[in-house]
Design goal:
alpha+beta; 4 strands; 27% strand; globular
């Protein structure tokens, strides 16, 4: 986790909560994100594949959180 003054960045986890949050962003607030499947199991599979790229240090996908732990958005570096 990277702690900032006003927000924190944490790596996306392969869990239902992160999959649901990302699917919600992609399918309701998708102005800057490409659309994806609303199926949570499909999002979990994508996260699982992403974790391989993270382990290879070729890509990083962060959840942006408020200091109180509320998910605010995502950012991906590659």
């Amino acid at each position: 986790m990277k702690n900032g003054k006003n927000i924190n960045l944490r790596l996306v986890k392969n869990c239902i909560e992160d999959a649901e949050f990302i699917a919600l962003l992609r399918n309701t607030k998708g102005k800057f994100l490409s659309k994806s499947s609303v199926e949570i199991d499909q999002q979990l599979k994508w996260i699982e594949k992403y974790k391989i790229r993270e382990a290879a240090k070729t890509e990083y996908y962060f959840v942006i959180e408020s200091k109180s732990g509320e998910n605010l958005g995502v950012v991906r570096l590659y």
